Amino acid sequence: MHGPVPRSAWVQVVAWSVAVLSLTVLATAAVVRSTVLDPEFYGRVLEDERAYQRFYDEVLVDPRSTPPARELLDRLPVPQSTITSNLKVVVPPETLRALGDRQIAEVIHYLEGDRDVLRVTVDLEPVVANVERLSRAYFGDAVAALQQRSEPDFQAFVQRLSDIAARLVAGEAPLEGLPSLPLSHAQAVAATDALLRLVPRAARSGLGPTVEAALERGDVGSALAAVAPVALSERVRAAAAELMREAERGTWVITVDLDTSRDVWAPVHRARSVTRLFQEVVEPLAAVLCAAALSLLWLSTPSPTMRRLMPLGWVLAAAASLTALAVFVLRLTPGTSLFVPPPSWPPSAARLLDDIQATAVDRLLSTATVVAVILLAAGALLITVAWVRQTGPRVPDLTDPRHGPALTFVVTACAVVGTMLAPVALTGPSPRICQGSPELCDARYDEIAQLAAHNAMATTADRFIGPLQDPDIVGQLDAGVRALLLDTHRWERPEQVADRLGSSEFTPELRRRLTRILQRLNPPHPGLWLCHSVCGAGALELAPTLRQIGDWLRANPTEVVTLIVQDGVDAAATRSAFEQAGLADLLHRPDTDPDRPWPKLKDMIDSGRRLVVFAEKADGPVPWYRNFYRYGMETPFAVRSPDEMTCLPNRGGTDKRLFLLNHFVTAGGGRRLEAGTVNSRQRVLERAHDCERRRGSPVNFVAVDYATIGDALGAVEELNAERLRDDAPVPTGLTGAAG
Known about the structure:
This is PI-PLC domain-containing protein. By secondary structure, the chain is α/β, with parallel strands linked by helices. The chain folds into 4 domains: 18-112 and 260-390, no CATH class; 128-251, no CATH class; 443-491 and 529-726, Phosphatidylinositol (PI) phosphodiesterase (TIM Barrel, Alpha-Beta Barrel); 492-525, no CATH class. 55% of the residues lie in helices and 8% in strands.
């Protein structure tokens, strides 16, 4: 019969169990500190999910998001397209990231107990700094002219604007600083109506005569001062005053305390309770118990020292096993989300939140796995050392010189065998790729569909005012765009503006005054430029941009790129720009007969001439510069809503080999909010199929705004896949009814 278990054995079992449990708790605390309570953890999660980029590309343009956003924006006296197209310029993803990092820090302070309330802290300084950079880029000449200086003093200019704004908010006319414009009676009435839309209806009749009289005598400051106190509520005026005080102190921080008793913030409050309990009670207690249990194990284990390492190693291994088991269970447990999106959220926002939470949980569990592996490795090391010292097994010494020849032979043999077997493992030569697909190599240029970027030069990345694309031109090519619609210009001169004003309703005196102002504020810049209507709102030098396109083509030798140029520059100057950019060896020369079939993509690629250049007006004189509408046709492009899009013939007639589908909305500028719907795969495919049936020709170019929003590229790829499956594209050169 077995006798009773010695008391020392029971002590060891209890000490071992306490050590394992307390060490597991400490491991969990280490995971929490390096994830839940680490700002960099959240930053990495948001970066992994491209959260700030997806806000613009998915959430903002979600069809469920656009109606409330449009309703809100339509209340402002500025076209909503002006705001949404410039939103990413003024508040780019990097600025959103800075704002997010600030809020993450506030949440962690709350979770750690450093704050008794959860605060939303918005630091507008990055936004203000970005606006200032834009102002310096676009309005430097104007500010210098207004200040009558050779270089602008932006600090003084901003201070002057702040003074004017403060007086207007207080209902006082600025003493100076606002222009005096001599308006006709009709113009004053129209301007008065526009200003009165900013005030409540009940106050309009009383303010009308005052505002109209001020505008008729050209006193813009008095008109604004009369409207501002009524248009701005007390709350808005208080907020404006607070912002001005912040600006004077050199800061732009807005802080709002949140009520964590509300359902939406309840999970954060619960998480705070857990983290504080861990930090203030559980973790210190576990550290004390772990130290005491390990010490007791050490003392209760008989000598020698190496023998005492064995139970300590098993403690580490057991804690690692418990941690790994917890990770395994959590990975198998569904529904690990902390926040459940409300049903009112648009699907894209809910999907983004779910993805962020899934990535956060995955990173947390991965960190826990690493901690478990570290514990297991440490435990295994202690157990191995103790076992080796106690048993003393013979282990061959690979560093022994006697083993050198054998080791050299084994390594050499493995290298030789690997070299001989490597070619056998290969599956043969890589398939030939043309325009991103091996199946397209045998297709003709006029048989495939390609994604085209409308106004490709007007980008958020290049800080255009009113951009229509987000990445720069190289970024668009990397994203799958293969046709670039570009506008070439010379910098607009004041006399050209004056010619336009000649057909306006402005009085001769006002036209002369505006022309003199423009001569000071917007001096022309020499050279050739890529601009969107007005070069002062954004411009790229033509030759350097063409050189970038050429560099991209040389770095991507299996791709064909098309340029469709709205040529505001004569053909001779354009030719010089292409020569200066060094593109002569890349330029494709279309057949002089527009009705002849185009070459296959593989033939264009083999020739090296993979850059096709069309002009909207010019046709030559060089053989690579052809008029697009001799070779191609298009659909209308001036539509104000997606419902107005049709397949009616526009420029180029109805019987050309190339077909440009203008698939964008042009209502006062870029419609970012519409892009999620317009650029959806289904919408593009439906319209392309409809226009192909009506026109009897395959769509070759799908031109969109914001090409990286939605899935227009997926639609283009599906069009090509359909044509390859059918092995017979829609016949070209047929005239069909359109509508």
